TrEMBL record:
Pfam families: Glyoxalase (PF00903). This is VOC domain-containing protein. It comes from the Eukaryota. Residues 52-197 form the VOC domain.
Length: 200
């Protein structure tokens, strides 16, 4: 005789049903995401050479530069710190951040870049000049998951940092357009740009 789930539920003591539900819930939870203990064990001690590393930017690709500038300045209230047109990469770059404009160094390019690279939380928008001729290759936003560019990490000694990353087994992606920077890939394949800058 085949019992219906409703019938089986009615004859199993409530204490057992609750215990089974708790065990199932606990099992699903452990399988779905790491426990606090696992997270604690995964956290590593930082290496002494990383003390001066700065997350200078997060870079994403855009298709509408003027609309982007209006949105991030007018809607979100960010400041457009820098614009740069690069012939090598055939791209234009726009760097935004939240900042009191009175704190931005004026009339001193060296002081400005030293100040900018020492900050965290900059947002870099990259616009490819070829996006109009090749719209399928340079799709942005939700149309293309590859529209995310990279995280930018500024280090005090580029060669030493790259040597250590290679020794750790990091996957390195060279930048043929600029030998002064490279990318390493995180476990999901996201690019982390590594380049050198000095604060003194």
């Amino acid at each position: 005789m085949i019992r219906s789930p409703k019938y089986i539920s009615s004859i199993v003591p409530q204490s057992i049903r609750l215990l089974t539900a708790r065990n199932l819930s606990s099992s699903v939870t452990r399988m779905s995401y790491p426990s606090k203990e696992e997270i604690s064990n995964a956290v590593q001690e930082s290496h002494s050479s990383t003390k001066q590393f700065v997350l200078t930017e997060t870079a994403i690709r855009i298709s509408k530069p003027l609309e982007t500038i209006k949105f991030y300045t007018g809607v979100l209230g960010m400041t457009l710190l820098l614009t740069r047109d690069d012939e090598k990469t055939r791209s234009s770059y726009y760097v935004f951040t939240f900042v009191n404009k009175n704190l931005i160094p004026q009339n001193d390019e060296k002081a400005f870049h030293k100040w900018r690279l020492g900050r965290s939380g900059n947002l870099e928008m990259a616009y490819s000049w070829d996006s109009i001729e090749h719209p399928t290759k340079y799709q942005c936003g939700k149309l293309n998951p590859d529209s995310f560019g990279h995280f930018g990490i500024c280090v005090p000694d580029y060669e030493a940092a790259m040597k250590r990353f290679r020794e750790l087994g990091c996957q390195v992606v060279e930048n043929p357009a600029d030998t002064s920077l490279s990318y390493i890939l995180d476990p999901d394949g996201y690019k982390v740009e590594i380049f050198e800058c000095h604060w003194s």
